[in-house]
Write a structure and sequence with these properties.
Layout: E1 10-13, H1 23-50, H2 57-83, E2 92-94, H3 95-128, H4 133-136, H5 139-165, E3 173-174, H6 181-185, H7 193-227, H8 231-261, H9 268-278, H10 281-293, H11 295-313
Parallel strand pairs: 1-3
Antiparallel strand pairs: 1-2
Helix pairs in contact: 1-2, 1-10, 2-3, 2-10, 3-5, 3-7, 3-8, 5-7, 7-8, 8-9, 8-10, 10-11
């Protein structure tokens, strides 16, 4: 692939590397996973929107997560599916399309952190200041936190991708399953010092603020629970916090693996697989974790299925 030359704004994308024998199983697995991600996430958003009893800050904030998960999966999985049966030497992509995919991929990753941060704030207020929860976490506050989460992510990623798009290009091959920021600036022969500095700062600020805020929030929640003698309150707090924490750990570990593997060039294939899984595993797991762990959501899903089964039986 490295020796192939192309003209204009056409790039050659490595895509998903599979053998001819495993292409059909890989396609079916990815397709079924994508269908599950879309149906479960969109279904949960529809359920929360339609059920007035679920119009609570925690569930409304979770809609941000489901929307982002569906967005992240749609950014990566459909292009991978379309390329599975295409020879690697014929997987062409336009530069503008590649830059847009890179923006979407990083926007998804950034929004995942910021959305989980505002969900942690909601849990903190609910458990540490329950008497003022209704007056603090109003619909206006929920909307404001949601806009903040998306706006901060958008601004940071626009700068990140903008710094790469400004560079001239001397290469046309992207050795990655999909386009990302590193793929874009590696196409250039210019100095990428500014890109590396901003990229490092972007990563440190995003991961640092995310990990720091979630850690401090849950330490405070843990102290409140230890001091409280209300077992029912502690049990409810443990259930909702464990759900949020499980989602955060899955996301954080998935993202950290990619960052660590970047330091080991001989493990590039493992890094590429990890980057795909980052857009597959968290979106598939999040709705399962919330749907099964949160009693109110689980009950509504059960009622809906029971109602449909009864209607079908008649």
């Amino acid at each position: 692939m490295e020796n192939q030359t192309l003209e204009g704004d056409t790039l050659l994308l490595e895509g998903l590397k599979v053998t001819p024998q495993s292409s059909i199983p890989a396609f079916i697995l990815l397709l079924l996973t994508y269908i599950f991600i879309m149906v479960s996430n969109i279904g949960l958003v529809v359920l929360i929107s339609m059920e007035r009893s679920l119009h609570q800050p925690m569930y409304l904030l979770f809609c941000n997560m489901s929307i982002n998960d569906a967005f992240g999966a749609s950014t990566i999985i459909p292009p991978l599916l379309s390329d599975i049966f295409t020879p690697i030497s014929e997987r062409y992509v336009g530069y503008i399309h590649c830059a847009f995919q890179a923006f979407c991929a990083h926007f998804y990753a950034s929004a995942t952190h910021t959305v989980l941060m505002i969900m942690a704030i909601d849990r903190y207020v609910a458990i540490c200041n329950p008497l003022r929860y209704a007056t603090i976490m109003t619909h206006k506050m929920v909307l404001g936190l949601s806009v903040w989460a998306w706006a901060i992510s958008f601004l940071m990623v626009v700068i990140l991708i903008g710094l790469s798009v400004r560079l001239s290009r001397c290469r046309t091959v992207i050795l990655n399953p999909f386009c990302d920021n590193a793929s874009l600036f590696k196409l250039s022969c210019e100095s990428v010092l500014i890109n590396n500095i901003y990229g490092l700062g972007y990563t440190v600020v995003l991961l640092g603020s995310s990990l720091g805020s979630v850690t401090l929030t849950y330490l405070r929640i843990a102290l409140v629970c230890l001091r409280s003698k209300n077992k029912a309150l502690n049990r409810k707090a443990l259930q909702t916090c464990a759900t949020h924490l499980a989602v955060y750990v899955i996301m954080f570990v998935s993202g950290s693996i990619i960052i660590v593997l970047h330091r080991y060039p001989h493990l590039s294939d493992h890094r590429k697989l990890a980057s795909i899984l980052f857009h597959v595993v968290p979106p598939a797991m999040n709705t399962v974790i919330y749907g099964l762990q949160i009693k109110a959501v689980r009950q509504k899903i059960f009622i809906m299925f029971t109602r449909n089964t009864t209607t079908g039986g008649k």
